[in-house]
Design a protein that fits this description.
The chain is an all-beta fold. It contains no helices and 10 strands. The N and C termini lie far apart (about 40 Å).
């Protein structure tokens, strides 16, 4: 079964940057070519929200309004990696960040976030001075 492992989180000051990594394993496929990938986050006491997603079928990734212009998503399918570059971080970005996948690679990916699965255990991002 497909499994993700997130890494790259940590403590950063407001205005700083982090790059989160998501490594996939356990899939019967050779690469992630056929999966849409999403990044999610969950802050203490709040429900999970979709942050970004990207499908292999188009070049128009989705970003939630609160991170537009600050975050970018990219993928290296040959190496089973997905990245979330986080710039100009704010305290409200503090959360556990997860990656997950839509094995059906549906587009536009933002409309299918509730169907994503194969969650990792997450990586903690804390933005504080």
């Amino acid at each position: 079964q497909l499994k993700f492992v997130e890494s790259g989180g940590g403590l950063v000051q407001p205005g700083g940057s982090l790059r989160l990594s998501c490594e996939a394993s356990g899939s019967s496929r050779l690469t992630l070519d056929y999966y849409a990938i999403g990044w999610f986050r969950q802050a203490p006491g709040k429900e999970r929200e979709g942050v970004s997603c990207i499908s292999t079928l188009n070049g128009e990734p989705y970003f939630t309004d609160s991170v537009k212009g600050r975050f970018t998503i990219s993928r290296d399918d040959a190496n089973n990696m997905t990245y979330l570059q986080m710039n100009s971080l704010k305290p409200e970005d503090t959360a556990v960040y997860y990656c997950a996948a839509d094995p059906h690679n549906r587009i536009p990916c933002k409309y299918y976030l509730k169907y994503y699965d194969y969650w990792g255990r997450g990586t903690q991002v804390t933005v504080s001075s």
